[in-house]
Design brief:
12 strands, binds S-adenosylmethionine, Spermidine Synthase, Chain: A, domain 2, alpha/beta, 9 helices
Length: about 270
C-alpha cells in the first residue's frame, strides 16, 4: 500500500495556492535564467512550471495558445504575414501561426533550456520549430527588439510574468521599441495576467501600451490552470483594432463568437485599464 501522495502547488499568496496531485516529477533544472520543473499530473497530463508558476499543461494549453494567436491575427485589417514571438520557447504559439498559414514566424526565446525541455516532454508543441516557416533564435527579446525597425506585422509577447527576465517586457521603453520594430499598421499583443489576482500586471501593460499606441484593446480567456482561471491579454496598435474575420474556423476554444465578443469586459476589468 502506498501511503504518500505527491503534490505540486503554485502559491498565489500566503493564504492561497492551487495544487495538482502528481504521479511523478520528471525534471527539475536551474538554468541561467530560471528554475524549470516538469510534473506528470493526474488530471492535466504533463505540466511545465517556471519559477514555481504554471506555464502550460497538456490538457489546457490549447486555450492560451489559440487565444494569444487567433485573436490578434483577426484584429488587424491586413492579414499579418510576418510574426515575431517573444518567449514561447515551448513552441505552442508558433504552432498556432503555422496553422493560420503564416509563412514568416520569428521566435525569440531567452532560455535555450526551455526549448530543450519542450523537445523532450512536449514534442507536439516543439515540432513547430522544425517547420520551415519558423526561425528560432535564442536571445533576449528586449535586446532583439531594438535591432529591428519596421519589420513585423504582429508581435506576440508570450512571456513569463513580469519578474526576472520578463520584467522589461512590460515597460514603456519596451513598447516604444516594439512600435519601432512593427510596420506602421502593426499590432502587439501580450499576455497580461489574471485581472483578479494580478491586477497590477494588467494595469501596467494597458497603461504602457496606451502611452505608446493610439489604440489598445484587452480581452480575456478561461484558462483553468492559471491563477483564478481568468486570464487577460492586451493589444496595442496605431491602426484600428477590431474583428476583421480573416480566419475564424473553430479551434478547441476559439470561434467566431469568441472573436466577436472579445472586447466585452466585466466592469472590474474595465476599471483596471
Ligand atoms: N504560456 C505561458 C504563461 O503565460 O505562463 C508563457 C510560456 S513561455 C514558456 C514563457 C517564456 O518566456 C519562457 O520560456 C521564458 O524563458 C521566456 N522569456 C522570459 N523573458 C524573456 C525575454 N526577455 N526574452 C525572451 N524570452 C523571454
Amino acid at each position: 500500500m502506498k501511503l504518500i501522495e505527491n503534490w505540486f502547488s503554485e502559491r498565489y499568496s500566503d493564504n492561497l495556492q492551487l495544487s495538482f496531485r502528481v504521479k511523478d516529477q520528471l525534471l527539475s533544472l536551474k538554468t541561467d535564467f530560471q528554475r524549470i520543473d516538469v510534473f506528470d499530473t493526474y488530471d492535466f497530463g504533463k505540466l511545465l512550471s517556471i519559477d514555481g508558476t504554471v506555464q502550460l499543461t497538456e490538457k489546457d494549453e490549447f486555450v492560451y495558445h489559440e487565444m494569444i494567436s487567433r485573436v490578434p491575427y483577426n484584429m488587424m485589417k491586413r492579414k499579418p504575414e510576418t510574426v515575431l514571438i517573444i518567449g514561447g520557447g515551448d513552441g505552442g504559439a508558433a504552432g498556432e501561426f503555422i496553422k493560420l498559414g503564416v509563412k514568416k514566424i520569428v521566435n525569440v526565446e531567452i532560455d535555450g533550456q526551455v526549448v530543450e525541455v519542450s523537445r523532450k516532454f512536449f514534442p507536439e508543441l516543439y515540432s513547430s520549430f522544425s517547420n520551415p516557416s519558423v526561425e528560432l533564435l535564442i536571445d533576449d527579446g528586449i535586446k532583439f527588439m531594438k535591432k529591428n525597425k519596421g519589420t513585423f506585422d504582429l508581435i506576440v509577447v508570450d512571456s513569463t510574468d513580469p519578474v526576472g527576465p520578463a520584467e522589461g517586457l512590460f515597460n514603456i521603453d519596451f513598447y516604444k521599441d516594439a512600435k519601432g520594430a512593427l510596420k506602421d499598421d502593426g499590432l502587439i499583443v501580450t499576455q497580461s495576467g489574471s485581472p483578479f489576482y494580478q491586477p497590477k500586471g494588467l494595469s501596467l501593460a494597458a497603461s504602457g501600451m496606451k502611452s505608446v499606441f493610439k489604440n489598445i484593446k484587452v480581452y480575456t480567456a478561461f484558462i483553468p490552470t492559471y491563477p483564478s482561471g481568468f486570464w487577460s491579454f492586451t493589444m496595442g496598435s496605431d491602426a484600428e483594432i477590431k474583428p476583421y474575420f480573416h480566419n475564424v474556423s473553430p479551434g478547441k476554444y476559439f470561434n467566431k463568437g469568441i472573436l466577436d465578443g472579445a472586447s466585452l469586459l466585466p466592469e472590474f476589468v474595465k476599471e483596471l485599464i
